[in-house]
Design brief:
The complex is a heterodimer of chains A (185) and B (133). Chain A is mostly helical and 185 residues long. Helix content of chain A is 76%, strand content 0%. The termini of chain A are far apart. With 133 residues, chain B is mainly α. The longest helix of chain B has 45 residues. Chain B is built from four helices and no strands. The chains are: A mainly alpha (185), B mainly alpha (133).
Chain lengths: 185, 133
């Protein structure tokens, strides 16, 4: 059954069809949100909320764009809002420290390597979300620039520039880490 | 160094086991709370309307001035608002008319005329001004 048909059934309240959509997208969405937030637990919570919203907002879905773009857009908006909230909270409390501790203990998904992977993740997390999101969507999730523009609601030209700048920043960060002798690979 | 290649090799996170069940459980919880919220909203809306109706009825009974159809007609004609039937006029609303009449002479003067019957009839419900003889 194709995705549009599945969504049509979800719009009619069919929970079986909704279950199929979750199964098809759960890993992609969890991974995307994990790469974006850098926190596995948070990524799982946000993914659950994303699917709940997919169900309740199913009537807003129009089959003119791929379902994946629509679901990723919901996930992106949720993650952005969450990060803004977290940033605001960290300005007024000492929770920041515990957040970092929590992140260190988060679900390990990276290969048990290696300084290189660790440095790459640090470099990715240090990127501003404006650049991190297009880079993740392009280089990790495999979306085209047009699809990313659709997900992030920005013009294609802006997305191209952000991907290019994001990659550049990433490269610089890694080179800096190499020069500092922190990379052994 | 091809950092983009490494980027692709970054470990991918996977959804934890039982993810679907957790989402479904959340979903049924949200559905129930949405239903309850809607019902509570409906009830509070009905309560608000009922309270408003009660207030309007009380206002109408105790505060707003009651008007009979004749009073309304007098209003249209530009008269002073009439009082309802049976209500007692205040001293300001009463115009004392004192007239001395000699009924004996009246009867005597009329007695020469053929049998005349005088009917004393109140012609209007709103004629509230007391006439004192």
């Amino acid at each position: 059954m194709d995705e549009h048909e599945l969504m049509r059934q979800v719009q009619e309240g069919n929970e079986m069809a909704f279950g199929q959509i979750i199964t098809a997208y759960k890993d992609r969405i969890v991974n995307y949100l994990y790469q974006f937030t850098g926190d596995y637990q948070k990524a799982v919570e946000l993914s659950q909320e994303t699917f709940i919203r997919v169900y309740f907002k199913a009537n807003h879905y129009r089959p003119i764009a791929p379902l994946s773009s629509w679901i990723y857009a919901i996930a992106t908006n949720l993650a952005r809002t969450e990060m803004k909230k977290a940033r605001r909270a960290s300005l007024v409390s000492l929770d920041d420290l515990t957040t970092h501790e929590f992140q260190d203990n988060a679900y390990a998904t990276d290969p048990p390597d290696s300084g290189l992977i660790k440095n790459l993740r640090e470099a990715l997390n240090s990127l501003h979300p404006r650049y991190r999101l297009p880079v993740i969507l392009k280089d990790m999730e495999g979306f085209s620039q047009e699809e990313i523009a659709e997900i992030l609601k920005k013009p294609v030209g802006t997305i191209k520039a952000r991907i290019s700048r994001g990659r550049h920043f990433l490269k610089k960060r890694l080179e800096k880490a190499l020069d500092g002798g922190r990379l052994s690979a | 160094m091809d950092e983009l290649e490494i980027l692709r090799k970054l470990g991918r996170a996977h959804a934890p086991p039982g993810f679907e069940q957790r989402v479904m459980a959340q979903l049924s919880l949200r559905k129930r709370s949405t239903r309850e919220r809607r019902r509570a909203f409906g009830l509070s809306l009905a309560g608000a309307f009922a309270s408003l109706l009660a207030v309007l009825v009380l206002l109408n009974v105790f505060v707003l001035q009651k008007k009979t159809p004749l009073g309304l007609a007098d209003n249209e004609r530009g008269y002073y608002p009439a009082l309802g039937i049976g209500s007692k006029p205040t001293s300001e609303q009463t115009i004392p008319v004192i007239e001395t009449l000699d009924y004996a002479a009246e009867i005597r003067s009329r007695s020469a005329e053929p049998g005349v019957i005088y009917l004393l009839e109140q012609v209007s419900d709103t004629a509230i001004k007391e006439i004192k003889y």
